[in-house]
Amino acid sequence: MLSIDLNCDMGESFGAWRMGNDYQLMDYVSSINVACGFHGGDASVIRRTVEYAIEKNVAVGAHPSFPDLQGFGRREMKMSALEIFDIVLYQVAAVKGICEALGAKLHHVKPHGALYNQAAKDADLAGAIVRAVKAIDETLIFYGLSGSFLISEAEKQNLKTASEVFSDRTYRPDGSLTPRTEPNALIIETGKAAAQVLQMVQTRTVSAASGETVSIAAETVCIHGDGERALEFAKEIRRRLINAEVSIRPV
Fold it and tell me: Can you give the pTM of this predicted structure?
């Protein structure tokens, strides 16, 4: 029987009373990626998000980013490998510590936004992120874009990896994501997103925006929690996967 992890970026608000759909979304996913404060989230939100995850029995991951609150971590930045190591170490350690204080265990790490996208194409940047994760806990699973340097650099350093695909983003023929600055980068139709997920999970391929069929590895599927229809997407994607006899569980 096929299985897949559904992950969702969460805890990206400020003030635990402004957490939107996070609590409801956890009913439909199997793992979450908690913002570490550099692009979203604060101490109260991180703590509350982890508490929700414990209650809902979903796996908790850290979601480190560039230090870019104003740009939500989606603007490219130039930082040295050592600086990257330091900011990832700091953020992951914070979320790991909160998890342990609450009786939970950190399950994985997934970089966010521009940090993720730049590292997917830059081996040195990816390597710095991986070294920071490994320095904290070499048993953590490293989530990264399928076919990218994020995965290959983590494998070189003997970290367990999870190749990630996206429900709500379109793809280029080389397997990279269409940049958000370009038209049609986002998938906004629920049915189209669910159909893309089924294709990726069942056939290990995705249809690029230009029409080509691209081979991918799909071990975890991302649903962006800040999307306008995130809850609707999560419900429909889960429903279709279950109807297709695909089990949903953490990596």
Answer: 0.95
